[in-house]
Amino acid sequence: MRASSLLSGLEQLLAVVLTQVLLICFSCCSDSLAQSVPAEDQTLGELQWLGRDYLRQGKYKESAEAFSKLLKLYPTEIRYYISLADAHTYGGRYAEAVSDINTLIKLDPKYDSMDLAVLRRARANRLMGRYRTAIKDCDWIMRMRPDPFAYLDRAESYCALNQHKKALEDFDQALKYCNVKIDGVDIMLGRAKCNEKFGLRKAAVADFKRAGALARQTGHTIRAAECEKHAARLESLPNSYQDTGR
User: What DSSP assignment string belongs to 82-149?
Assistant: First the structure.
């Protein structure tokens, strides 16, 4: 009985000792790993993750703050200006987004993805109401390659400037070059609203219905309902309402 109790006590003591040894080893390994990564790199990784995650969540102010901190650490890191411009644009701070891209261009006039940077500036300029400036940026992009988003921004700008024919041509080109399943709804909605602005009810209704059908096909039921609501609203107008033909 005593031998059994002694054996049990030794087993318990051994378990405690082994646990302590494992904890010490784990602590040493953790310290070694932490020391192998510089503190500034840990900050870099954390800020990158926070900036992207905040942007994904729609927390644009917080995303902009994270990327601004990154640029204080790495003021010549071009990709952070792109991300900061995105956060500013989505957050409605269009002038700051334009400034971000202008700084990028000044730092690296031969940036490999300059078309993507200029596209962001075009969008921010359009959203600020600087339609002619936005058109110039889109023209520059399309001298390099046909881009559906550049066509879309230019179409929206032409529509705002009451240049309906040019706007429709660009909406058509945007649909031609885009991935319709992903971006087709936005483009069709833009064209529908532009047609409605110029009094082309039948064309607007057709575009709203097409956009709604595509939204349903791709599982976006809320957007589909929005498109169908717009189509129904236009169809409910009295018969005296006529297309202007503009």
Answer: HHHHHHHHHTT-HHHHHHHHHHHHHH-TT-TTHHHHHHHHHHHHHHTT-HHHHHHHHHHHHHH---HH
Per the CB < 8 A criterion, the answer to whether 170 and 197 are in contact is no
**Count of alpha carbons within 13 Å of 128, Cβ hemisphere only?**
20
Q: Is the pTM of this model over 0.90?
A: no
Q: How far is it, in rounded angstroms, from Cα 24 to Cα 32?
A: 12
Give 202-245 pLDDT, tens digit per residue.
999 999 999 999 999 999 999 999 999 999 999 999 865 556 55
Instruction: Write out the two tokens for 68.
Output: 């601004």
Q: Which long-range contacts (CB under 8 A, 24 or more apart) does 30-38 make?
A: none
CB 107 within 8 A of CB 78: yes
- Taking the C-alpha atoms of residue 223 and residue 219, their distance in angstroms, rounded to an integer, is 9
Question: What are the φ/ψ torsions at residue 74 (nearest 5 degrees)?
Answer: -135, 75
Residue carrying the six token digits 């059908």: 213
Q: For residues 193 and 124, give the distance between their C-alpha atoms in angstroms, rounded to a whole number.
A: 20
Q: Please give the Cα distance from 236 to 200 (Å, whole number).
A: 14
Instruction: Kindly give, in sequence order, each residue whose CB lies less than 8 Å from that of residue 79, ignoring residues fewer than 6 positions away.
Output: none
